[in-house]
Amino acid sequence: MPITRLSSAKGETYPSDERKNPGSETATDDCSKKVRVFVRKKRAKKTVLTTVEEVKHEILDQKPCSLPEIEDFAYGKDSSFPPLTHTPANWEKVLEGIRMMRSSENAPVDSMLSDVVCFVPRKEDLQFLYLHSCQAKQRIMLLMARAIQRLLQNNLLTAEAIEKADEGTIKDLIYPVGFYSRKASNMKKIAKLCLSKYDGDIPSTLEGLLQLPGIGPKMAHLVMNVGWNNVQGICVDTHVHRICNRLGWVSRPGTKQKTSTPEETRESLQLWLPKEEWVPINPLLVGFGQTICTPLRPRCGICTISGFCPSAFKETPSPSSTPKKSHLNKRS
DNA sequence: TTCCAGTCAG
DNA sequence: CTGACGGGAA
């Protein structure tokens, strides 16, 4: 079956879990010293941002490593030195808590991804077709699966076939999917573009993907992440956007204000989140956002990390029926 | 009736 | 920045 899913299976282990081994004291002391020197230098040059990734890259000479000293330093646990900018306290506990909640509850995203990526082998190459469902609802995702099935049955999964096919036919085949009309025409345009510029394949760069009609930052990063295995950025959808802001994980540059767009969230999040989390953060938070940290009436009562969440129990219960801005509002 | 989700057009 | 997009569910 050529359909690949982004959502990861439950019970997956993450690299950060393997970090807590007591290493040799001399090595970590040395590392700790290097971190201080490095950050001091950066700050002397008035470099605005110093990320955990950057420190690791410099100090550890590109070798993947997550020494506790760097993490502690980043979180501000080391009182002898100010924390790195933008790294929120307790983020690992929060992530771990969300993983726990996710493992005990099935979210729609687990059964079928909201963004479905199909790879269709043809000759020796991989042909690619994207279908994009904005809906996180299970119903739509089931319909999405059926839409793909129908496209498969009609041999409409190669750029050539899509290019030749009637737009109305495609429209009918993918029908109940959100924005099917626009998507059908985008599929035609993308097929034509891919045939003329990419030999029937899809572009393998972020820039190339973003040129395709209907492909924005969210889909482009998703395709880079799961399609090309080349992580250029975090795939930020509204769930990631919303939850990161509720947690206080992201902010507009130089302020404590919430980010206003997913793109802003992506850039802010990438400043401190370790790269090994860039891919798993999406299905993790999407599922969390579907089951617990919902846009409307988040279930703070059953959320195990509400103690770490600045927004816990602070959402207005019924925004639609009572549009009046009540007592609880933004802080100065 | 309102909202959903991402992208694009105005 | 605002709204359209297309259907269906809350």
Automatic annotation (TrEMBL):
HhH-GPD domain boundaries: 134-291
Molecular function as annotated in GO: 4 iron, 4 sulfur cluster binding; class I DNA-(apurinic or apyrimidinic site) endonuclease activity; DNA binding; metal ion binding; oxidized pyrimidine nucleobase lesion DNA N-glycosylase activity
Keywords: 4Fe-4S, DNA damage, DNA repair, Endonuclease, Glycosidase, Hydrolase, Iron, Iron-sulfur, Lyase, Metal-binding, Nuclease, Transit peptide
Gene3D superfamilies in the record: Helix-hairpin-Helix base-excision DNA repair enzymes (C-terminal), Hypothetical protein, domain 2
Database matches in PROSITE patterns: ENDONUCLEASE_III_1 (PS00764), ENDONUCLEASE_III_2 (PS01155)
Recorded GO CC terms: chloroplast nucleoid; nucleus
Cofactor field: [4Fe-4S] cluster
EC number assigned by the record: 3.2.2.-, 4.2.99.18
Catalytic activity: 2'-deoxyribonucleotide-(2'-deoxyribose 5'-phosphate)-2'-deoxyribonucleotide-DNA = a 3'-end 2'-deoxyribonucleotide-(2,3-dehydro-2,3-deoxyribose 5'-phosphate)-DNA + a 5'-end 5'-phospho-2'-deoxyribonucleoside-DNA + H(+)
Highest rank taxon of the organism: Eukaryota
Sequence segments annotated as region (Disordered): 1-30
A GO biological process held by the record: nucleotide-excision repair
UniProt function note: Bifunctional DNA N-glycosylase with associated apurinic/apyrimidinic (AP) lyase function that catalyzes the first step in base excision repair (BER), the primary repair pathway for the repair of oxidative DNA damage. The DNA N-glycosylase activity releases the damaged DNA base from DNA by cleaving the N-glycosidic bond, leaving an AP site. The AP lyase activity cleaves the phosphodiester bond 3' to the AP site by a beta-elimination. Primarily recognizes and repairs oxidative base damage of pyrimidines.
Family statement drawn from the similarity comment of this UniProt entry: Belongs to the Nth/MutY family.
Name this polypeptide is given: Endonuclease III homolog
Organism ancestry: Eukaryota, Viridiplantae, Streptophyta, Embryophyta, Tracheophyta
